[in-house]
Amino acid sequence: MPKCTIDGKEVEFSPGENLVKVAKRAGVEIPVFCYHPGLSVVAQCRMCYVEVEKMPKLQTACSTMAVEGMVVKTQSEAVKKGRAGTMEFLLLNHPLDCPICDKAGECDLQDNSYGHGGAYMRHSEERRTYVDVDMGPVIQKNMNRCIHCTRCIRFGDEVAGIHEMVAIQRGNNIDITTIDGKQLKTEYAGNYSDICPTGSLTLKDFRFKKRAWMLKKTPTICEGCSKGCNMEVQHEGNVVYRCVPRENLEINQYWMCDEGRFNYRYTQDESRVLVPMKKSGGSWLVSEWDSVLSELRADLSAKEVVCLVGSDLTNEEMSAIRETMGTIAKSAKLMSFGTPGIGTASQDGPADTILKMKSKTANLNGAEKAGFAPVTGAVRAEVVVVFRGGRAELPKIEASRVYGAGVFLERDRGALTAILPGLSFLEKDGTIVNHQGKEQRLQKAITPRGRCKSTGEMLMLLLNQKAVSA
Amino acid sequence: MSAETQTLFVQHFWNDSNRTLDYYVKRMNGYESAKKVIATMTPDQVIEEVKKANIRGRGGAGFPMGMKWGFIPKNSEKPKYLVCNADESEPGTCKDRQIIRYTPHLLIEGLIIGSYAIGCHHSYVYIRGEYVREAELLNAAIEEAYKNGYLGKNVFGSGFDLDITVHRGAGAYICGEETGLLNSLEGKRGEPRVKPPFPAVSGAFSCPTAVNNVESIANVPHIIRLGGEEFAKLGKIDKSGGTRLISLSGHVNKPGVYEALAGSMTVRQIIEDFGGGVWKGKRLKAVIPGGSSSPVLTADEIDVVYDVEPLMKIGTMMGSAAVMVIDEDTDMVKLLLRITKFYAHESCGQCTPCREGCHWMESILHKILHGEAKPSDIDLLVDVAGNIGGKTLCALGDAAAMPVQSFVKKFRSEFEAYVKGQKSHA
Question: Are B72 and B210 within 8 A, CB to CB?
Fold first, then answer.
C-alpha cells in the first residue's frame, strides 16, 4: 500500500482516499462541515484546510486525494489561521442561540468553533436573517443558523433520490430551502436533521424535548423492516427521545427511513397493554399473571392448538417458544406471521430504491431458518396463542380462545381473549437476521414498564406451574 | 502607433458592413485556414502549431492555449466539447464584444479549427446575457456559415461534422469562471466546481472539454494563416505570441479597444499613445492594469512592459487586458467600495470566505466612507481580505481580495483620512 505522511506520522492509504479519511486513520481529526463520507465532495465550507508540501496554497483535505510520498501538515500556523478565518466567517451571521438550540451539544459548528475559532468577535454589523418555510411534519427549519454547507441538497439529490432542497439567491443572500417553499416529500427526511452540521434543520419530534448531552445512547437495530438498519436509541429516565442511524456501510450506510426512525413511538403509546388482561363479557378486565397463565396452561391441552410466532421476535425467543411448546403442547402447530403476502425471504425484496424492504418485520429470515411455516389466509383452531413483538400484523383468527403474548396496543386486541404483556424491541436483548442473512444484535435500552415480562420468563412460568407474585 | 505595428483585428472593427461572410471571405482570407487544416493537417499538427504560436489564453489566467488543448484525452470514448467563453464579465473588459460584433466569422472559423483539433462535433459559445445584440449577430453569422456548408454535417465536404450553439447567460460574473460557465451551460446554478477534475478530463456534461476565450479562439485562424512560428514572433516578449486586444477605459481622452503586439508597449505608452493621455489635463493617480480584480498600480509604477510576466513581477496581473485609468481627483476609498460591492454582489455564495467575507469587506468600507469606522478597521479590512484571498473554491475570492489589499497598501492615507475624520463623504 502507498504511504503518505500526516503530521509526521506515516500512514498507509488506498488510492483514491481523501486526506480527511487518511488523517482519521492516523488519529488526526480534520474539522469539516460540508464534507460527509456518504455524499459527493464539494469543498465549499473551506474548513478542512491542510498544508501540503510543494503546494503554495492551503488545500482542502476533503477534495485532496492522498498521493504516495505526500507530506501533509494539519497543525501549521497557516492552517490554524485559515481555519480560524473560516470559523469567523461562518459565525458572522450565525445567531449564536445555542442555549435554545436543539443541536447544542452535538453541533459541528459549536465543536469546531471551540476547537478552531477565535475567542472574540470582530464583526459589529447587523446579522442576516431569513423568513422560514414550513418543511412539513418531520423537519423544523431555522435558516438563520444555516452555514450553507449544502449537505441537505446533496442528500436529497444523491441519496434520497429527490431534488427538493435547493439554493436560491446568491452571495450573501443565498437561501437553502425547498423548491417553491413546498413541504418535504421524501420518506427519509429525518436524515436531513442528522447531517445538518448546525441547528438549521432539526427534528420537529425532538424539538425542545431534551438537551443532547443528557441523552444516554444504546446501539441497537431498527425493527421496522428486514433491512436491519443499525441505529442508536437515545433515551433518558427510561423515556426514548429519538432514534438515529448508526454507520454500517454494508447495510444502511449512514441513513435510515422515517418509518424506522419514528417506529419507537408505539412502545411508549398510552394505549399499550402493560398488565395481564382478560376479556370477559365483551369488556377487558385487568387480571393477574397466575390467572391468565393457568388458563393458558389448561387450554394448551386442547385438541387443536395453533401457536403463531411473529417474525418480529428474536431468534432466542423463537427457539424458546419452539422448545416450550414441544414440551407442553406437543400437538400444537407452529406458524409464523409478519407481513401479509411476504411469508418467506424469497417473497421479500426492496420496497424502494434506497433502504426499505417489503417485509415490515425484522426477523423474517430468522423465522424461516427456525422452520416455521408462514401463515396464509385465516387461522382456524380451538385455541390460538400469538407471540408477537409489536410490528407483526395479526392474521385473521377464528378461535374460541386467543391468547396474545407480547406487545399489543388497545387497537390490536380485536381477535384476542387474553393478553400476557411482553417486551418491545427496545426492552430486550437478542439477535435477528436481516434480509442479507446477517445476524445482528438488539440491545436493551430501557427497562420494561408496567407488569410486562420477557417471552423467556413467560414460558418458564408456563412450564413451572408455580404461583407468580408480580 | 509606430509604422511597424501590425494588427490582426482592429482594422476590421468599427464598420458594420465588415461582419458579413462576404467581407470575411474576400478581405480576410475567410475560412481558408479552416479548409487548409481539415484538408491537410492532423489534429495533432494543429495543436502543435498552436503550441508553437506561444499564445496565452486571453481570458485572464494567461494559460498557454496549445497546452490546454493538449490535455484533452485523445482515446476517450466520450464526446469532446469546445466551449467558447464569451461571458466577458470582468469589469473594464470589452474586447470580445468587438470581435463578435465586427468579425464573428473569425470566431466561427476558430471554433471549426479548434473543434477539429480536439475532436469536438458540437461546440458551444456561452455569451453573457447582456450581449443581446452580439448574440443576435453571432447567430446570424452562424446561420450564414451553415448555409454555405461551413458548419453542420460534412463541413467543406470533408466529412467532418460540427454544430455550434450559442447559449446566452443570465448576467452573472461567476459564469465567466470556466466551471461556473459549464454548470450554467448544463442548466445548473452558475457555481464553480471543485478542481480536479479539470474540464479537460470532465467538463461539459462530464465529458472532456476545452474552454477558451473569444479572443483566444479568434486568433487561431491567424495562427494557421501565419504559421505558429510567425505568430509567435509577433510577440515582443518571451512566452507570449501574437497581439493583444486592450480595453482602455477610465479617465483617458480616447477610451476604446486597441491592439498591440504582445509585450511591445508599457502601461505608460498605452495610456499616452493609445489613450491620448489622462483626460482634462489632469495628472495620473493610479492604473488598474488587468480588469477590476487586478492589484492597482500607482502613477510611479507604469513604466512596466504590458504583458503577463513583467506585470506579475511587480505584483499585479494582466488579466483580461482591461486597463482602467484613474485621475488625481478620484477618491480611492469610494472606488474600492464600488469594486468591492461588485464582487460581493457577484459572489455565488457557495464557499464560505467569499460569501461572508466579500459582504463584510463591503460593510467595513461603507463604514470607513461614512465616518463610522475605528482606526483598527483598516487593518481588519486587510486581514479579512487575507482570509479570503487564496482560500476560496474559485478565483472570485482572489479577485475580491486583491483590490482591497493593493488599494489599502498603496493609498492608505486616504483611508486614514476618513477614519480620522479629516475627510467626509460628500
Answer: yes
